[in-house]
């Protein structure tokens, strides 16, 4: 649940919502249909996005399989897919904390411990750069802040 929304409900326990709280609640609820629609588009084109990213990323790391084993590109795609899906869910919930708490803190630790941050950096740039080629401007604008947050925490 969106943290702002959860806090609003908890703080209003035993009383009526103030007008500004009602407006925040109204704005959040009113945005749900748009976020659901965009979420569905983002979901339906995940493979197209990841295919494009991996296709452009592989030439940048020709020795990845030698250094990290035969499953390296499969793992890379799995990890990018996981980040994409959590970004999409965070967008749907309109909640960056969801993304941080459920995935990024954990994955950041993994990437640091395996010293993979520098190797992964181009992949997140490619994801951001690929948005306008795969999605319309509305979808790109809605997901971009979450991808930027992921890129910043994971590889910057």
From TrEMBL:
UniProt keyword terms in alphabetical order: Bile pigment, Chromophore
UniProt-listed Pfam families: Phycobilisome
Classification via InterPro entries: Globin-like_sf, Phycobilisome_asu/bsu, Phycobilisome_asu/bsu_sf
Family, per entry: Belongs to the phycobiliprotein family.
Name of this protein: Phycobilisome protein
Species, as recorded: Thermostichus vulcanus str. 'Rupite'
């Amino acid at each position: 649940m969106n943290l702002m929304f959860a806090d609003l409900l908890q703080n209003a326990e035993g009383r009526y919502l103030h007008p500004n709280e009602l407006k925040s609640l109204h704005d959040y609820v009113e945005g749900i249909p748009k976020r659901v629609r965009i979420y569905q588009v983002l979901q339906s084109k995940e493979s197209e996005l990841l295919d494009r990213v991996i296709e452009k990323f592989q030439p940048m790391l020709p020795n990845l399989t030698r250094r990290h084993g035969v499953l390296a590109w499969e793992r890379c795609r799995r990890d990018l897919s996981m980040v994409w899906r959590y970004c999409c869910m965070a967008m749907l919930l309109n909640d960056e904390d969801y993304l941080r708490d459920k995935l990024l803190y954990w994955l950041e630790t993994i990437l640091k411990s395996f010293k993979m941050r520098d190797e992964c950096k181009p992949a997140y740039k490619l994801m951001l750069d690929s948005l306008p080629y795969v999605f319309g401007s509305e979808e790109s604008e809605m997901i971009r802040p979450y991808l930027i947050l992921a890129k910043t925490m994971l590889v910057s």
